[in-house]
Amino acid sequence: xxxxxxxxxxxxxxxxxxxxxxxxxxxxxxxxxxxxxxxxxxxxxxxxxxxxxxxxxxxxxxxxxxxxxxxxxxxxxxxxxxxxxxxxxxxxxxxxxxxxxxxxxxxxxxxxxxxxxxxxxxxxxxxxxxxxxxxxxxxxxxxxxxxxxxxxxxxxxxxxxxxxxxxxxxxxxxxxxxxxxxxxxxxxxxxxxxxxxxxxxxxxxxxxxxxxxxxxxxxxxxxxxxxxxxxxxxxxxxxxxxxxxxxxxxxxxxxxxxxxxxxxxxxxxxxxxxxxxxxxxxxxxxxxxxxxxxxxxxxxxxxxxxxxxxxxxxxxxxxxxx
Length: 322
Ligand SMILES: C[C@](O)(CO)[C@H](O)COP(=O)(O)OP(=O)(O)OC[C@H]1O[C@@H](n2ccc(N)nc2=O)[C@H](O)[C@@H]1O
Ligand SMILES: Nc1ncnc2c1ncn2[C@@H]1O[C@H](COP(=O)(O)OP(=O)(O)OP(=O)(O)O)[C@@H](O)[C@H]1O
Description:
The chain is an alpha+beta fold. Helices cover 38% and strands 29% of the residues.
């Protein structure tokens, strides 16, 4: 049976600003229930491995030994395969079912897009297995059906994301940067909850569509964060980190505030929560600084529930290993 093994990296958000309500359509535009975003997304070297294998059955099956990851149709990797089988029924009939095995390294419900990256890997894997020859744009359009982060996970690297996060502009690749990540094992945050709570608390200040929104998008485009990335100025980037979702997640989780403060005490280039959290990351100039930051935060919060990773910025998204 033919199979492919893919590496599916996690992402962090170097910048996440919520502008207002996201709308779909042209003249009869309607709120989609999502938010209009401006984000800078960055792939990191913390990766899952996803094996996609033709099974010779007519089933889609998912295997993952992580206790928090479902093995049924609710797994985002399963949903990616189901979408492909619906989209390409003749290929599904010809090549048959697929077994997907997820080797989890990326923490779950962490704000690091683990599920989205697994789904992106399945799209790429089935494109290969079923010899579809899809373009990156076509794969990303399919990814957007599954979730806002999936299109980015396909291409990876460093990107500016707008719309609900699915519209992407590649930015100069940032490499040789270190990131220290920490998460309480027993704590997860629901992305839907984070956005819903943000809407309840800050919805009144949302920008209306039209000139206000376009002006803000323009400001960010020509602003300091884009300049810092273009100049590969890690010190400036560290100072400009932003995540609007911190405004709702931090007040709800005092231990994340404490973790963020412990990171801040170590004088990193910058520290921030990633996505909807609760993972907190700090940027470091070198591996030595990253190790020092990790050791100091570990000593400051001696809690066995706290898990750490040191990663580098990754210039790519889904990659084939076999
Ligand atoms: C927090 C981030 O991870 C940052 O990169 C993303 O914005 C979320 O991406 P994701 O997990 O792929 O999100 P989706 O699966 O598309 O949506 C999950 C939930 O978040 C809300 N959501 C998501 C993206 C967005 N721009 N606005 C939203 O309000 C959706 O209403 C939904 O209830
Ligand atoms: N393949 C998968 N990997 C991880 N979680 C999955 C997967 N499929 C479904 N889930 C479920 O999705 C939920 C969110 O998991 P995930 O790890 O993708 O969150 P996240 O990193 O916060 O996502 P994001 O950063 O995109 O908002 C969990 O409750 C988990 O049970």
